[in-house]
Structures are given as structure tokens and as C-alpha cells.
Amino acid sequence: MFSLLFVINFIAVILLSVNIARKSNIRFLVPTIPSIFIWSYFVFSYVGILALFFLWNDYRVSLGIDDKFKILELWVYSSLSLLLIVLTFYFLSNILNLKIDKNYREIKGSGQLNSTVKMGMFLLFVLSIGVVLIYISKIPSIPLLEQLKGASSEELALSRSEATNNFSGKLHWYRLFYSSVLTFLGYYTFSLSLKKPTLLNWSFFLITFAAASFTALMTTQKAPLVWFFIGLVSTYLITRKTQIKLKTAIILGGTTFTALLFMYRRFMGLEGRPIIDVIQSIFSRAFTGQIGPAYFYIEMFPRHEEYLLGRSFPNPAGIFPWETYSITTEVMNYMNPAMIEAGVVGSAPTVFWADMYANFGIGGIILSSILVGLILYLLQYCINKLDFNPFIIAYCSWLIVEAMTLSSTSLANFLLNVDLMFLTFVVIFMLFLNRQLVLKDPLKGLKSFNQKLIKFEEQK
């Protein structure tokens, strides 16, 4: 009976969330920041709890995720967060009347770019390639090439660690260009080619696509390439002003699944394993890989560690009076102490609310969920007010993918995000270059207001 009640309530939360979102003018087949976030939340931060509750995933059980009452607590927190987010969408849409367009056909604009903007985007691409070359020169080995040479799984894990978590320099500055900027440029060149299919535009896209695909794969991490493909599909749908159709879903699903099969067999040491084992590994990673670590966040805090009270938040240049607590590394060490002995710096990222729980308890979950709802909805609302030219479409697609990462990163990292700040600056600068933020008549609004005020006085 207890299990049946859990399943009923588990499904009820999904249906209630979808209903509230739809009443908030959000369409699940139209790629927007709120809609794709909800999809990703369902996949990475909710559905997998069912498998954890019934102990269907042997690997997660072996890690210690076997306490049903703690898993039930995990479901309560995940459900609370999801419902608060969609209720925030509802409040903004129906109470404050900040309506998001149901589809991109309702957005008007020329979508034209001048030559200055196009040259600026090309120079940004050249700069990104330069940074990629510098980064490659600073790492002992490129994990992707080591894998192709036949490195063992242990050697590959060490190479990946040296190129990412254990990188000696300031990795986030390199990642800004080799990941975020190149990805953004991939979306921009794709949209530009769709709008104006010239040989030059398609050549620029293919070069950018090759560079972005290589940098997404070079550390043998699987998610970046999948996110890149999802962003390209969003770019196509937004540029064409259409919604997700069955054919599109099948192509995206088939391409993604095939890519994951290849990457898991090559990068996870599963070449000799039956195909069913590889598929199980993919589903395990997809549905429980991100929400699973949240179980240990709940177990660690405050039972083994006091609430952090903000110590896990980024502390750029040490301006805040605390030493940053590397929560993802500490949780991984708690989950798998053997990694310390192996000299591998692991990481256990999870859904955004888990970090806030580790810092402030249940209050942190409530506050962060409301903030996420506000931020994601208002981002889409503001973007929809702009002229949808290729770099705005690229920015929207990049934000869609970035919002998806809230299923595996903290809210603080999302807000204090150098990549987000930099690309926002690039977009604003390009808007000025494209003469879209220059007021033709700065006094026009004041004149109109004065005329209405005079008319009102005359009527009195």
C-alpha cells in the first residue's frame, strides 16, 4: 500500500506541474527556456527517483542509495522544488500578466545583421580558436587522443582529471571560450546559414561545428556534445519558427542515442560488454546520475557536516570572508573514498536545490526554487521583446541549454556565471553595433507623456 501511494503521488506531481505550466502560457513543444528546463528537470531530477525508490538500479544501490525513507525525503524535496518553480511561472504569467508568446511566430522583426556585426562574430571565433590552442598546450595530454591511442580506463580517468578538475590553471577562463563561446558561435552560424544559405555562411558553420564538436569531446565528457546537439535543434526550431514535431523528436532522439552508445563504449571501457549493458548504463546515467548524488547531500547535511551557510558559493578573487567549500568534490569523496587513494579528483554535481539545502536546509530549497522560476521566466520574457536575428536566436538557444544545467549545478554557479556575463555583454554590444539599442528619438516618450498630461488637465 505504501509503494502504491508513492507511485500515485509521484505521477500526480507530474500531471499537476504540467497543468500549471500550460496555464502559464508555456508550450512543451515550443523550445523556450522554461519549457526545456521543465523537460530536463523531469528527466534528470525527477523520473529517476522512481527507480531509486524501488531499488531497481543495482549500481546506485551499491553506492549506498538504499534507504527508502531517505529516498522518499529526496522525492519530497524534488517535488517541492518543481511545484514552486511552475507556481512562480503561473504568478508571473497570470497575476502580473507578463505573458510569454505561445510560439515564435508572434515575434516580429527583420532579423537582419549588418557587416560590422558579422565581422565582430568572426573575430570572436578567431579569438576562441587561439584560446583553445593555448589550453591544449597547457594540459599534459588530450583525453580524447589518449583514448584513441588505447589508454586504459584508469589512465583515461587520470588524463580527464588533469584536463578538468585537477587543471593547474584557471580552467573557467579557458572553458569560457572552448565551450560556451564556441557553442554560441555554432548556434549563430547555423541560424545565419538557415536564414541566408550562402556558401560562405555554410562554410563558416561547418568550420565552427567541427571546432565546437571537437572541444565538446576532447575531455571525453559525454554531456557537452549532447547539449550542443540539443542547442542546434532549438536553433533550427526557433529560426524556422516552428515547434517540435514527431519527425524532429525521432531524429534528435536517434542521433543522441547513437552518439551516447558510441561514447559509452569508447570512453567508459565498455567495448567488450553486451549492448544491453551499455544501454542500461546510459539509462542509469541519464535518469539517476544527476539526482543520485542529492541523496548524499541529504545524508551529509547536517548529520555529518553542519549547514554551510554560503561557504560553497563561488568566491571570485577571494572578495568574500570565507574559504570556498568544494561541495561537489567533498560529496564525491564521501560517496567514493577510493578516488582519493587513486589520486583522481572527482566531482558529484547534482540538481541546483541540493547545494542550497546543504547551505540553508529546507529554506534554501524554497528560496532557490522561487528564484529559479523568476529568473528563467523573465529571461524568456525579455528575450521575446528583441528582434530575433541570428545572434539573438543563438543567445536564446545557449540560455536554453544553460538552464538545463540547473539539473546538475548549483544556483550560485548559474548566477555568478562568467560565461553568462560574457555572452550577455557580447549580445548587448552586438545589438549596439546592429543599431538595435539606439533610440531614434530619446525625447519621444517624454513628449508623449506631456501631451497626455496636458490633455488630462484640459478635460478637468
TrEMBL record:
The keyword Transmembrane applies. It comes from the Bacteria. The chain crosses the membrane at residues 6-24, 36-56, 76-96, 117-136, 172-190, 199-217, 223-239, 246-264, 357-379, 414-433. The keyword ATP-binding does not apply. Coiled coil: none annotated. Keywords: Membrane, Transmembrane, Transmembrane helix. This is Oligosaccharide repeat unit polymerase. It comes from Metabacillus halosaccharovorans.
